[in-house]
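Appendix B, record 7
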Amino acid sequence: MKIATFNVNGINGRLPILLRWLKESKPDIVCLQELKAPDDKFPEEAIENAGYHVIWHGQPRWNGVAILSRNAEPVETARALPGDPRDHQSRYIEAAIDGILVACLYLPNGNPAPGPKFDYKLKWFERLTAHAKDLLESGAPVVLAGDYNVMPTELDVYAPERWEDDALFRPEVRGAFAALRDQGWTDAIRKLHPKERIYTFWKYWRNAFQRDAGLRIDHFLLSPKLAKRLKACGVDRDVRGWDKSSDHAPVWIELKD
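Structure tokens (predicted):
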């Protein structure tokens, strides 16, 4: 089974990119972030014509998440992160697919830091950690996939000294990611590539992609049952180089059946 996560940075504007990648890569399950489209503007027909069942939670202009499945239809189990009924940002969706619980998340950016946006990011992280603990204690095979807007270590950022005050790299955020992981989750990329410098995001300006000045902010965290099935993972970095592509590249894992 191949599961992927891809921050598309606007699903309608990048639809040709997404469809081309789906055709070439053929993932079984896909988590999408940053749809930047309300529910009624989501390209459901195009996704279904590409061979995928889909559920989504959109939002005008910003945010938005979706889960695609090539085989079994997703059974939605949540379309918001528990813990704050006042939070209406579309950043989380969860579904059962082929015996796996798939959580697709788009964690807040948090800049500028410090400030209200950074406080919201930390609160969201706290809610995610609490919910993840419940999922882990259920004993179910679970994957937490998406854009975490966190570089966990200095290995995950091209120039750590330039990011010390950024909300994606501040100690509070890196500590929150470590606390989440230490519940018992496995960082799939680091499990199989513990020392390799791997990036999933490159800014559009200053030739960041050409210089490989990137960040690793898109992650897979696997529950113990899924971690035992992990056999491969990687980044489709060539997609980032396609014309008019997202500033993120798709990230994927392969699980033993």
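Remarks on this record: The chain is about 25% helix and 25% strand. The chain has a mean pLDDT of 98.
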